[in-house]
Structure formats: C-alpha cells, structure tokens
Amino acid sequence: MSTDYEKNSLTLFDAIAMGTGVMIGAGILALTGQIAELAGPYFPFAFVSGAIVTAFSAYTYVKMSNAYPSAGGIGMILQKAYGATAVTAGAALLMALSMVINESLVARTFATYLLRGIDLAPTGWPVPLIAVCVILFAWLVNASGNRSVGLFSTVMAVLKVGGIAVFGIAALWAGGFSFEATGSSTDIGGFTGFVASTALAILAFKGFTTITNSGAEITDPHRNVGQAIVFAIGICILVYLLVAFAVGSSLPLETIIEAKDYALAEAARPALGSVGFYLTVALALVATASGLIASMFAVSRMLAMLTDMKLIPHSHFGMPGVIRDHTLVYTVVVASGLAVFFDLSQIASLGAFFYLVMDIIIHWGVFRHLREDIGARGWMMLAAIGLDTIVLIAFVVLKWQQDPAIVVYAVVGIAAVFAFVKTFLHFNPPDAHQHHIR
C-alpha cells in the first residue's frame, strides 16, 4: 500500500500559506482571551515570549528539514534520532495528537464565531454540532487532493492575513492607539501566569511544523522548507502583536477575558461598529476553516509515514484508497470526538502539554545523535529544551490550581500513548535495518 505523495505539488508560497493558515486559524482567534486570562494586562507580550521560545525550537526543525526534507517530517526526525523505537512512535503520536487537538480547537472556534455572528450564545449542543460539520468539510477538501489544498490554503492565507491586519490597524486607529487593558489585572496574572500563558502562545506558532510534515511535497525542499518556516513565523508574530494591541485598545481586560473564546469579534464592535463586527466574524470563519484544512493535510501525512515505518498499527476497516485516505478518516473521527467532549480551554491545555513534551524529546534526540550530521549548534537545542521545560512547569503548576482534571488527562494520555506503542512494537518489531537508520 502506498502513501501516494505528490512530489513538487506545493510551492514555497503554498508552504508559507499552509503554515500561516494553521497558526492564524486558532492562534489569534481562540487563544487571545485565554492568554489574557493568564498573563493579565501584559498579554500582548506573551506572544513575543511565545515567538522567542518558538524561534529556538524552530532552529532544530529548520536544520533537520533542510538536511532531510520528508513527508511526515516529525516522524523522520524522531526516527533518525532514536531509531525505530517506542520513543520515536510515542513522541510522533503526541505530535499527531496535538495537531488533531488543534483541529478540534479550530473547529469549536469556528462554531463559536458563527453563533456570535447570528446573535446566538456560543453554548450548548450547537457548538459541537457545527464543529463536527466544519471538520467534515475540511475532510472533503483534503480528500480532493494536494492541488486543491495548496490553492485553497494560498487564497485563504492571503485573505485572512490581509483581513486580520486591516482589522488590527482599524481597531488601533479607532481606539486612538490607547491600551484599555493596561489598567486592570486578573486574579491569576503575575510572573507565573505570564510564563504559563507562553505555553498557549507557543500553540499559536506551532503550526510551522505543518510545513515540516509536508517536506517531500514542497518544491526544492532542501531550501524552501526552512525558508517557509522562517517566513511563516515572521508573518504571524507581526499579525499577532497587531491584533493583540488592537483588542487591548478596544476592550478592558475583564471584557476580553469574559469573551475569551470570541475576543476579536467583541473588540470589533466598539471599535468598528456593527459592520466591523460582522466582517470580523466572517474573517474568523475563513481563518478557522482554512487552518483546519491545512492542519488535516499535514497530520494525515505524518500518520501515513508512521504507518509506512511500521511504528503504529493500521487497519483500513474496509475503506477503499491508500493509507493517506484512511489516516484522513482517523483524523476526522478523533478531532470530532474531542470537539464534542472538551471545551476550548481544555482542548488548548491538552494541546500545550502534548506539544511541549514532544518538542523536548525531539530537541534532546537531535542534540544527542544528529547535531554534527546537520551542522547545528548544540547550545541552541539546549536553550530550546530549557525554555520548553520552564514553560511546561509553569503551565502545569497553574493548571493544577485551576483545573487539575486536565493535568490528570494529559499525564494519563501521554502515559497511554507510550504504553500503546511499546506494546505494539513488542508484538510487531520493525525490520532490523530501521534501528540503524542513522
């Protein structure tokens, strides 16, 4: 069975669009209010701290992607670092799950903004119902092939980056470049709250790994994968800062937190009036839908690569098509389940836990085994590990105070992933040559 990759089907611009599509899809729309709740009045700067941590993190991915561009790139990095082991399979599954979690986050964000746009409260059964419907729509677009995804991602990325930038500038102008949120504070806030908020801000940037996971399908991948990652992160930090200050200039902190799941829409109403409100809702719907499509494209390919590497089990359950088609369906099922059973705050927290643990594992593996092969600076990877660890500890401490159940879910989930792959590999050992891929 083949994963059926389409080489050279995505240009550099397509790759940048895909990365920004995933990041902006949830990063600024769903997380602004949640970050404000943790960071207090200085929440815009949490995006800066998130960008700094992401920059150190991205270094490893850029160096590895330039040396070994691959579809399902995260799985490739882990296999080269750890071989065909449970560590590779477990960490790769954590990454895949964090991406699927992101999809459910984006889908519920779509539902929240849609309901606000038709003057309904974003609560109750309509939220998961709409979320599942938009997940199914994203599956249909992905099932139509790479070129459809590339074209759709490119068009949507241009629309939403331009539209969100216009929103930010207009809101700042209407607010007289003042910052309403500065004069308030939250019960959480403080230094620990700010550091913990960085974990959510990192989620707003982690979409750059979507580019890594599609490396084999990007033209001139040894050059374009790294360039696409750098450009995508650069574009997003500018957009995030612009929008964060725009929201802060339109609303006091308490209102931002109260409307945390749809803060941009609420900020648009006082700054830009009813027309601005509805345009912002429309923009949010475009941003979330395109982000969902781009994320689903990447995670299905990573799961397909892990299947080809014989690191995870696979069953087609009677479905036709290649492995990629099947992993798309798996992604839809899991994302839909998460969207039904968890709220936005819980989904974001789970994604942060899974992603940070996986990220630390990747940096350590590349530092130990591959840094000389790819000509990377070891101190950059150690700095990335240190920053990830600090942020993760602060996030655990804060979430344990707020919602200890989600910490338990995360720990149990991580343990279950590694136990699952350890058991699978015990009964289904990969070929011997895979253990010595380095």
- Helical content band: over 70%
Order of helices and strands: HHHHHHHHHHHHHHHHH
The proportion of strand residues reads: under 5%
Structural class: mainly alpha
Q: What's the total count of β strands?
A: 0
* Largest beta-sheet details: none
Principal-axis shape equals: globular
Average pLDDT, rounded to a whole number, is 80
Rg (CA only) = 20 Å
Count of discrete alpha- or pi-helical segments spanning 4 or more residues: 17
Q: Poorly predicted ranges (pLDDT <50, ≥5 residues)?
A: 1-5, 432-438
- Measure the end-to-end span: 25 Å
Summarize the structure in short.
By secondary structure, the protein is an all-alpha fold.
Describe this structure in words.
With 438 residues, this protein is mainly α. Helix content is 76%, strand content 0%. The protein is globular and about 60 Å long. The two termini are 25 Å apart.
Question: Can you lay out the helices and strands and say which pair or pack?
Answer:
Layout: H1 12-26, H2 32-39, H3 43-67, H4 73-82, H5 86-117, H6 126-143, H7 146-174, H8 190-203, H9 209-212, H10 221-250, H11 253-258, H12 263-308, H13 323-341, H14 344-369, H15 371-374, H16 378-402, H17 404-427
Helix pairs in contact: 1-7, 1-10, 1-12, 2-8, 3-8, 3-10, 3-16, 4-5, 4-14, 5-6, 5-12, 5-13, 5-14, 5-17, 6-12, 6-13, 7-10, 7-12, 8-14, 8-16, 10-12, 12-13, 14-16, 14-17, 16-17
Which short descriptors sum up this protein?
438 residues, mainly alpha, 17 helices, 76% helix, disordered C terminus
